[in-house]
Specification:
mainly alpha, DNA binding, 8 helices, HTH cro/C1-type domain-containing protein, Lambda_DNA-bd_dom_sf
Length: about 160
Amino acid sequence: MEKLSSHVFRKRLGERLRAERQKLGENQTQFAERLGVTKLSLLKYEAGAWCPTTEQLYGLEAKGIDPAYIAFGVPRGVQHSLANPVNRKRFSTVFAKVYKASLTLAAEASEADLIDLTWNVFSSEGNLSDEILTANVNRVLDELSKKNSDNMQNFKS
């Protein structure tokens, strides 16, 4: 799994957002109105300085833009597309478990790490039971916590 910094994550999201805007043939002012933000905000999103909110991304669905593609680069038609309301609810559940487990295990993970981990668990697990899902989330976070602990030991040496 590629580890993304939050800056790289925002930059890639901005590139996909710009590409979709251009594909629609809209200028920044028009697209900003669609998102419900100012043109300056859209400029910041496209440059990777800021991220749009989840609500703004899902507002694009009415125009046929898959918010999962914008956020994660996962093309439409993928089995686990977040354009599906059931999948969005499941993704939200997985994210809540990942976040809670990261706090419980005191795993030092960036926002980008948590989102990346959530997507990987969500897209690989299918419809497994909550118990198996929770066990897998805990296992991955435990590995991340151990890795961070090893890095701190190496730093102290």
